[in-house]
């Protein structure tokens, strides 16, 4: 694809592609997506020089890539492209990774990092936060069941562009990747006595009603996070954070080590 020469060209290209691509909202989302190999179709900034200065300061590894990608647009052109302006006034559209490739990653034998399953999550912000966590811990992927679209623009915004650092897909419970399934539930065995293997599938229930019957039936073990009796449950994303941290202590790859 030829790079747009002017803001007007970039806007035209944007309108042509926006229905079928992933919106990267803000400098940090674009930075992460580029860093983790996203195919960026068009990228705009209201102040190109300022965006590149930010890259020089915070992300020198992607500065040249951003220099090649960014087209300067006016404030009015930018405002017409995004649902609400981001403080960095940077935005881009990227190709959504192929479902086939993600499913192959999720189902691969001998995975070296867990798959996180959110069973019928309801809150778009929680899903984004979980994808960010999964990326940070080098998890193989995040699977959602139910109706929430894990590639919804609000989830991508919450994930800070890190959907490209892990495999994100929606599946039915019957289609979950193979591997020992540990379902997180306050009634389970205390996680402090449980070693989570690298190929674990770690499942978390919905904010409203916890784990579904189908997920419970598929679980090999119910595992609980330490919590005093008077408290009914933790927030979904914080539960994922504690569980991945526990995995990182007992079975996780060493910090800095490349993981899939
Ligand atoms: C907000 S909670 C769900 C609360 C829901 N009202 C219920 O009835 O279970 C969302 C999910 O976080 C996980 N979770 C929260 N607190 C937990 C705990 N103490 N131990 C294990 N998992 C927990 C579970 O997977 C739970 O289904």
From TrEMBL:
Stored Pfam families: SpoU_methylase (PF00588)
Listed GO biological process terms: methylation
Species in which this protein is naturally found: Streptomyces nigra
PANTHER family noted in UniProt: RRNA METHYLTRANSFERASE 3, RRNA METHYLTRANSFERASE 3, MITOCHONDRIAL
Coiled coil: none
Keyword Transmembrane among record annotations: no
Keyword vocabulary terms for this entry: Methyltransferase, Transferase
tRNA/rRNA methyltransferase SpoU type domain span: 115-245
Gene Ontology molecular-function annotations: methyltransferase activity
Listed name of the protein: TrmH family RNA methyltransferase
InterPro entries membership: Alpha/beta_knot_MTases (IPR029028), rRNA_Methyltransferase (IPR051259), SpoU_MeTrfase (IPR001537), tRNA_m1G_MTases_N (IPR029026)
């Amino acid at each position: 694809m030829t790079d747009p020469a002017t803001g007007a060209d970039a806007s035209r290209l944007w309108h042509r592609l926006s229905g079928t691509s992933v919106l990267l909202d803000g400098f940090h989302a674009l930075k992460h997506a580029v860093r983790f190999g996203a195919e960026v179709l068009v990228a705009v900034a209201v102040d190109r020089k300022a965006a590149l200065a930010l890259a020089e300061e915070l992300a020198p590894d992607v500065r040249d890539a951003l220099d090649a990608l960014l087209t300067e647009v006016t404030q009015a052109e930018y405002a017409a492209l995004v649902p609400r302006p981001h403080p960095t006034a940077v935005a881009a559209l990227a190709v959504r990774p192929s479902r086939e490739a993600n499913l192959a990653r999720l189902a691969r034998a001998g995975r070296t990092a867990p798959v996180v399953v959110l069973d019928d999550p309801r809150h778009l912000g929680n899903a984004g936060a979980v994808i960010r966590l999964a990326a940070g811990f080098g998890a193989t992927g995040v699977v959602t069941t139910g109706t929430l679209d894990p590639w919804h623009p609000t989830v991508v915004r919450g994930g800070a562009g890190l959907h490209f650092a892990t495999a994100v897909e929606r599946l039915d419970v019957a289609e979950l990747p193979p591997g020992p399934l540990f379902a997180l539930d306050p009634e389970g065995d205390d996680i402090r006595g449980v070693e989570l293997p690298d190929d674990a599938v770690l499942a978390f229930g919905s904010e409203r009603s916890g784990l579904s019957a189908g997920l419970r039936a598929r679980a090999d073990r119910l595992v609980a996070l330490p919590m005093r009796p008077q408290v009914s449950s933790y927030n979904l994303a914080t539960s994922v954070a504690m569980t991945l941290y526990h995995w990182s202590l007992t079975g996780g790859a060493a910090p800095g080590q490349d993981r899939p």
